[in-house]
């Protein structure tokens, strides 16, 4: 059975899950394998992006980022999943509200609306929480959009770059 179960979360009803799986097994006679998915990939990392521009159309302000929902965060479009952003909330009356836009040419490369305490400006960092699970495995190089680099913070609080993607990665996928 597919993933997405947050069975490691403190408020997850594991007893109910066990009961449902046992009843399903008894009713069908099938051997059940539960792919835990989110159970071990949940809250595993952030995707750090930069505001490249702010555009306004029809009263909606969109922060154009240096990442793409289509290429880097397809789960936000497919599921749909609205990730948390550090320092942002769901829209709040009286606070600046922005839609996040990706850097591809697709008109649907945008997600949600968030409020911030202060107006965004080009150069601001937008840090999406809980994004590594799909950003690592479902990305595309649509039209050559560069993948974000992959890195970790070490136990002694130092950043270690693990992988930096280049145009060659895109080119080599095509031929």
Q: What key phrases describe this protein's structure?
A:
single chain; alpha+beta; Lyase, Ornithine Decarboxylase, Chain A, domain 1; 2 domains; two-stranded antiparallel sheet; 25% strand
How do the strands and helices of this protein lay out in sequence?
Blueprint lengths: L13 H15 L9 H4 L5 E11 L2 E6 L3 H4 L2 H4 L9 E2 L7 E5 L8 E7 L8 E4 L3 H4 L14 E4 L5 E5 L3 H8 L1
Describe it.
The chain has 175 residues and is an alpha+beta fold. It has 2 domains: 1-42, no CATH class; 47-170, Lyase, Ornithine Decarboxylase, Chain A, domain 1, CATH 2.40.37.10. Helices cover 22% and strands 25% of the residues. It has 6 helices and 8 strands, in the order H-H-E-E-H-H-E-E-E-E-H-E-E-H. It has helices at 14-28, 38-41, 69-72, 75-78, 132-135, 167-174, and strands at 47-57, 60-65, 88-89, 97-101, 110-116, 125-128, 150-153, 159-163. The chain has a 6-stranded mixed β-sheet with strand order 3-5-4-2-1-6, with no helix packed on it. A hairpin with an 8-residue loop joins strand 4 and strand 5. The longest helix has 15 residues, at 14-28. The two termini are 35 Å apart. The model has no long low-confidence stretch (mean pLDDT 87).
The protein's oligomeric status is single chain
CATH topology of the largest domain: Lyase, Ornithine Decarboxylase, Chain A, domain 1
Specify the helix fraction band.
Answer: 10-25%
Low-pLDDT residue spans: none
**Structural class by sheet pairing and helices:** alpha+beta
